[in-house]
Automatic annotation (TrEMBL):
Gene3D superfamilies: Single helix bin (1.20.5.490). It comes from Myotis myotis (Greater mouse-eared bat). It holds the Pfam family TSC22. This is TSC22 domain family protein 3. One of its GO terms (cellular component) is cytoplasm. Keywords: Coiled coil, Cytoplasm, Nucleus, Phosphoprotein. GO terms for biological process: negative regulation of activation-induced cell death of T cells; regulation of transcription by RNA polymerase II. Residues 66-100 form a coiled coil. Belongs to the TSC-22/Dip/Bun family. InterPro entries: TSC22/Bun, TSC22/BUN_CS. CDD domains: ZIP_TSC22D3.
Length: 116
């Protein structure tokens, strides 16, 4: 898998979920190749073991996704903080410029759809 095309861990996780298979889960669980036999000779213990492996793999995927989501949320929170700060700065600058502008200058900018 070429992860260079993904920009966030969330995108990698979503890609992995869309393209998962038994070997993917197997690699997550330590490299053991899981083989499934579709015959009636499988014992109850092997079915339970397979169910446990699948459950472990799903838990691992869930944990990976939760980590990726938390990381993405933190990035977005930081971007929101930066945008709020920039917005406040621009509002202060706008107020200052309006107080320093002459009435003629203000008239040039007043028109339909212009907020002052």
């Amino acid at each position: 898998m070429n992860t260079e095309m993904f920009q966030t861990p969330m995108e990698v996780a979503v890609y992995q979920l869309h393209n998962f298979n038994i070997s993917f889960f197997s690699s997550l669980l330590g490299g053991d190749v899981v083989s499934v036999k579709l015959d009636n000779s499988a014992s109850g213990a092997s079915v339970v073991a397979l169910d446990n492996k699948i459950e472990q793999a799903m838990d691992l995927v869930k944990n990976h996704l939760m980590y990726a989501v938390r990381e993405e949320v933190e990035i977005l929170k930081e971007q929101i903080r930066e945008l709020v700060e920039k917005n406040s700065q621009l509002e202060r600058e706008n107020t200052l410029l309006k107080t320093l502008a002459s009435p003629e200058q203000l008239e040039k900018f007043q028109g339909p759809g212009t907020l002052l």
